[in-house]
Amino acid sequence: MGRKFFVGGNWKCNGTTDQVDKIVKILNEGQIASTDVVEVVVSPPYVFLPVVKSQLRPEIQVAAQNCWVKKGGAFTGEVSAEMLVNLSIPWVILGHSERRSLLGESNEFVGDKVAYALSQGLKVIACVGETLEQRESGSTMDVVAAQTKAISERIKDWTNVVVAYEPVWAIGTGKVATPDQAQEVHDGLRKWLAANVSAEVAESTRIIYGGSVTGANCKELAAKPDVDGFLVGGASLKPEFIDIINSATVKSA
Amino acid sequence: MAAPSSLASSHLSRLADLRRAGVAAAAPAHPQQLRLGCSRRRAQRVVAMAGSGKFFVGGNWKCNGTKDSVSKLVTELNAATLEPDVDVVVAPPFIYIDQVKNSLTDRIEVSAQNVWIGKGGAYTGEISAEQLVDIGCQWVILGHSERRHVIGEDDQFIGKKAAYALSQNVKVIACIGELLEEREAGKTFDVCFKQMKAFADSITNWADVVIAYEPVWAIGTGKVATPEQAQEVHAAVRDWLKTNVSPEVASGIRIIYGGSVNAANCAELAKKEDIDGFLVGGASLKGPDFATIINSVTSKKVAA
């Protein structure tokens, strides 16, 4: 069967109680394509997960933006995968570029997190992507492959994994990633999965685009054959997120 | 992003003002009072309990809990009879703060276990100080040994976190402490003072700071820290503050013990002159034991 379009909204370190209420209201009232066509996940900060989970329409799922690498215990400040499961939070974003660069998360650490989260029953949005320096040195696929390998060495079942490609080189650098550039990496990554994991995993795993996605460019990106959806940043806090979700219909057109 | 709720900010600011007034009232009026004997200093501290010298007990739940276990613990805490002259704070994981805030008695304040170093924004997985204020969280634990040694947070990063949190009116439990290898190399005070210096380089107003000494050397190493060993470090830290910050800050600030504290040893620890309370680990997950630890403030009074 075809890969179901996937749209995740990463709110990052944003939101107040009032803003969260407004965003949830927009999401609850928005006209969105059916769950047969698109899978939608939103990812608030930890402190807002319970309220979003309780107020959000059931067709839209909730994700945490991170979790701890192993079982909970003496790890002050961390939230464990089993805590998320206990609160019925089904998804988690792991290996986001901001955590790799600002919090020093290594490929192996991210791989261990993905494996542990899956072992506890979470579904994972696993992020990969290269910096400007890496791209300009011609290392794009080497970097993305190494990041993906650190995950594939630690897991067997990819059913509950969505891979998000973040063109870090185009985030805050003044560069703009074109849909063709996104497609090129997605295609390369899918080929890597086919060669290093299996043809079945390559065919069934959703590879979503985690670059700058807006109401204006979402349809063109969605039309690319190996772009299976988005991990949306700032636009996920705005009404245009509804339009981005509905770009899923481009795939069935 | 939008500024935190003006109501919450204003409320916390007023609390901060009251605390600052308390500090001034508690400070020695004349230099010669600094030479007061031990028993007189203890008596003074009891009298000053209405100010910032008040006994302080924080419960750090760490990365523990389920919806049900949190509910049970909150019920136990709500049912406990707590002594009046002690500040009590609990620190649930981020994901349970909402549940705790909605069900716990307001006699007990709530802390986060960590916070981001600056304003919120593109920092996936982090929580900002503005967000803590927005959800009614009054405190944050910073520099905990598990974040220093497991996560890799360095002194300067932690110092900047403290400065930013305070600037947003979040009160700070600032943690310091040395590893076993550091202690055995005779570097206890070097390490603690270096950690203190990183806080002092960043903090300008200490009114909303509590210092927690964690004898990391006795955590999971088979060693046991005695009340005398705790007192020795607490007294040295207070002296360091007196020399490097000011005598007023040194006398007004709470220095709490973050080693292994339980219902059996809390009374003995509380009697030590420079131990102003506790940052409790595992025992804070047991409601009745934690209440006993909170109420060990009475041992402080007996000692005085």
Task: Write up this protein.
The complex is a heterodimer of chains A (253) and B (304). Helices cover 41% and strands 16% of the residues of chain A. By secondary structure, chain A is α/β, with parallel strands linked by helices. Chain A has a single domain (5-251), classed as Alpha-Beta Barrel (TIM Barrel). The longest helix of chain A has 18 residues, at 179-196. The radius of gyration of chain A is 17 Å and the shape is globular. Chain B is α/β, with parallel strands linked by helices and 304 residues long. Chain B has a domain at 54-74 and 126-301: Aldolase class I (TIM Barrel, Alpha-Beta Barrel). Helix content of chain B is 46%, strand content 13%. An eight-stranded parallel beta sheet of chain B has the order 7-6-5-4-3-2-1-8, with helices on one face. The chains are: A alpha/beta (253), B alpha/beta (304).
- The chain-level structural class of chain B is alpha/beta
- Let me know the CATH homologous superfamily of chain A: Aldolase class I
Strand order of the largest sheet of chain A: 7-6-5-4-3-2-1-8
Give the spatial strand order of the biggest sheet of chain B: 7-6-5-4-3-2-1-8
Spans of chain A with pLDDT under 50 lasting ≥5 residues? none
Give the topology:
The complex is a heterodimer of chains A (253) and B (304).
Chain A lengths: L4 E6 L6 H13 L8 E6 L5 H7 L4 E5 L16 H6 L4 E4 L2 H6 L4 H13 L3 E6 L3 H5 L3 H13 L8 E5 L13 H18 L2 H6 L1 E4 L8 H5 L6 E4 L7 H7 L2 H4 L1
Parallel strand pairs in A: 1-2, 1-8, 2-3, 3-4, 4-5, 5-6, 6-7
Helix pairs in contact in A: 5-7, 7-8
Chain B lengths: L5 H21 L11 H10 L7 E6 L6 H13 L6 E6 L5 H7 L5 E4 L16 H6 L4 E4 L2 H7 L3 H13 L3 E6 L3 H5 L3 H15 L6 E5 L13 H18 L2 H6 L1 E4 L8 H5 L6 E4 L6 H8 L2 H7 L1
Parallel strand pairs in B: 1-2, 1-8, 2-3, 3-4, 4-5, 5-6, 6-7
Helix pairs in contact in B: 3-13, 7-9, 9-10
